[in-house]
Amino acid sequence: MENDRSAAKWTKGTLALFPVQTLILAAPLTAAPEPAKPLTPSDIVAAAPASAWRTIPAEDLLVIDYDAGGRTVVQLAPTFAPVHVANIRALASGGYWQGSAVYRVQDNYVAQWGTNDDKKPLPPGIVAKPPAEYVRSARGFAIRPLGFADPYAVRTGHAGGWPVAQYRDGSVSLIHCYGTVGVGRDLAPDTGMGGELYAVIGHAPRQLDRNIAIVGRVVEGIEQMSALPRGTEALGFYKEGSVARKIASVRLASALPAADRPSFQYMAETSPTFAAYARARANRNDPFYRVAAGGVDICNAPVPVRRTPAQ
Amino acid sequence: MENDRSAAKWTKGTLALFPVQTLILAAPLTAAPEPAKPLTPSDIVAAAPASAWRTIPAEDLLVIDYDAGGRTVVQLAPTFAPVHVANIRALASGGYWQGSAVYRVQDNYVAQWGTNDDKKPLPPGIVAKPPAEYVRSARGFAIRPLGFADPYAVRTGHAGGWPVAQYRDGSVSLIHCYGTVGVGRDLAPDTGMGGELYAVIGHAPRQLDRNIAIVGRVVEGIEQMSALPRGTEALGFYKEGSVARKIASVRLASALPAADRPSFQYMAETSPTFAAYARARANRNDPFYRVAAGGVDICNAPVPVRRTPAQ
């Protein structure tokens, strides 16, 4: 079993995947040069120039620290769900989630956390009933298409560092992939205030796209949620009185002391490196592979994210 | 945050999703009847008649019991990878995996288990170098198409209770979805003997389709693998000398005493119930949803599996 990060050794077996023309042109000139080792998506990301990366603003990072240690960092998506994200920032700043918990872990679906205590006082400025920020107009919105068929949307691609889908009516939504963070809600037209959040810990539940407010994605520490014991009650909820993991605090990175403030960068989809990365994701030709897929689904071409390198 | 199994209460909001014709026809006759509550995929599965189900033969069930308790059951796929599956049956019958372990858990990818000790004697009858059972001819092979676009294949659907993809060259493969079990291998042309197996515990890694021998799927107890702490070494491997979980035994269900022998059934894709289930998966219209997707990807329409009901 291999993986993107496997440093597979070069073998002659992969030669057949190169275009035949390359070999014909190269042969008559001199002794045939050693063909370049095919790059994995991870190789391409590792070699990306600084210009391919964008630093995520500290006020877009939600830092979840657990009682027992460990940290999960979520990048917020204010462009797509501004009212929900404003609520979440205010809840974090107001200390709303101190002493809250991860209380639902459903296998191949979601881990959910926060506070569902109706009596807990809200910090000032919370919009109790946010609008349904599920889709937005595609107008003025540059999408880099991924270029492959999708069962859910007319097309998929990336915009502003996020995976997006465009639909027949022209609207655009963020996409539920592994690690996507959304706002728990009750039956429509409720959209959720933001006090209960979930992260996807299984196969992309795309049926939720356009039906729920996506507010971000986990950029570090998803395993603090995905590796938790599954809840034993219906829908993966923990039994009354027990929780999967206690949360010590949820804060914006901008509110943390500089020494403890994490910083991350995402790869801009407008960069040539991203284009090469997406191509490699769809056409794996490193030595492990016999057949390149020739396509990739949007959740299998995740936007590369890294810790901001030290200056 | 909802789920298939949510018993959402009926609301008027879903009315708009019924075909208008139904309402027009019904209205003039008498007082309009209460519209039927939209069924979730789980509702449909729960109401399936006995004729929709096929019992999985006991020699197709691999039962993994852990030292610390807990059990994972894998359904084998002999039609697709007969030589690999014959190896696996012989390894199980020979007690090859007693005292083995889950030694790799990589987030959003795979959990891997078995024995990679080259010196461990093999039971008789093992084919040391199985053929590349990655694809097969579509001829004589009835596929029920799912009917939606796919980024990896010309079409996807179900055959004999398994998710399958058909490619431009006419070949057919099983598909890597959540819970799919495959045979770990080194670089091609190695196909793996079957002594090391993995289960998918994240978003479908479809790039592996046609590149690795798929031999089955987890039908119960995936959380015994998916909820394990992630390995801290490269590719999610555990540190030398430590393992994620010790395995007490791996046996075929047919070798277990009757009282301890699990039995499962899958839903035949040829049944009307399966067609209704797949339609509902692609067109969720229970009260939680504002917009039905109008499509579904093959790994988001998993074949329903259940414990065989008591007679």
Automatic annotation (TrEMBL), chains A, B:
Gene3D superfamilies: Cyclophilin-like
Pfam families in the record: Pro_isomerase (PF00160)
A single MF term (Gene Ontology): isomerase activity
Entry keyword set: Isomerase
InterPro entries associated with the record: Cyclophilin-like_dom_sf (IPR029000), Cyclophilin-type_PPIase_dom (IPR002130)
Top-level taxon of the source organism: Bacteria
Residue runs in coiled coils: none
Domain PPIase cyclophilin-type positions: 62-228
This protein's name: Peptidylprolyl isomerase
